[in-house]
UniProtKB/TrEMBL annotation:
Protein's UniProt name: Ig-like domain-containing protein
Residue ranges of the TM segments: none
Compositionally biased region (Polar residues): 50-66
Region (Disordered): 46-66
InterPro entries xrefs: Ig-like_dom (IPR007110), Ig-like_dom_sf (IPR036179), Ig-like_fold (IPR013783), Ig_C1-set (IPR003597)
Alphabetical list of SUPFAM superfamilies matching this protein: Immunoglobulin
Domain Ig-like: start-end pairs: 7-100
Amino acid sequence: AFPSSTPSIHLETPRFRTVMTQTEITATCVVHSAYDAKVSWLLDGKDPTSRTPVNQASSTTQSISSNLTLPSSQWKTLNTITCRAEHRCFNSTEKTSNVKG
């Protein structure tokens, strides 16, 4: 049986210098969970448009990695980004990072 523990979430956002010098910005979310959780992103508390590319890869059964890539022009207008992990066996868990320059 799997433990019914809440997953831990590690959210990596780029440095300010990267945002100012690159045309595309990528944030990475790593979810450590015993379950194959669904990872989703929120931009300023809202679901991003379907055009926003999100890559989710299950590297192991214990860790799921998801990358969110945005044009730097869009990134610069954001206040927060949130990575959320959902699975029917635990309450949805999220981590928010303040990205306002």
